[in-house]
Amino acid sequence: MAPSGRALASLITREIDQGTGKVLELGPGTGIFTDHLVARGVDQSDLTLVEQNPNFVRLLKQRFPRAAVLEIDAAALGSIRQPRGELFSAAVCGLGLRSMPVGQIEAIMRSAFSRMAPDAAFYLFTYGCRCSVPAEVLKRLGLIAEHVGVALLNLPPASVYRIRRVCELSRCAQ
């Protein structure tokens, strides 16, 4: 497998722009999704990047000096003090959730959504046929996954999903 490409980065960030507000990125790695967020008008000071790998943390701090870069496990995000005090309006996930145990996926989702505004959207990608957050986890956390599209030019092709709180969707439908 190759690292995430431009087609996937464009698709996973296409609904986020300068008007979104604070954006959380889990597992930014070298920052390809981060580059696209900045290109779409998201100010670096509105970004919080959560990366566990110390080498990537150093690179991200150099490339995005005004972003908050946290060297922690994404599942621990809910247990630390909010870096800038506000809730996130969107989250982008570059973590390989499919390779993680269900309990770890649930901890990551619970942690992220504890720091997100009620109407915020969480974007993730997968190389599989369905969302990489298991249906039972979505149900337990009151979340719903919506398929956004497929990045066919990514190697391998990847699907992008938007995850939101169920209660927020029902409120929007009224």
Automatic annotation (TrEMBL):
Source species, domain of life: Bacteria
GO MF annotation, one: methyltransferase activity
Coiled-coil region list: none
Example GO BP: methylation
Keywords: Methyltransferase, Transferase
The protein, known as: Class I SAM-dependent methyltransferase
Organism of derivation: Sphingobium olei
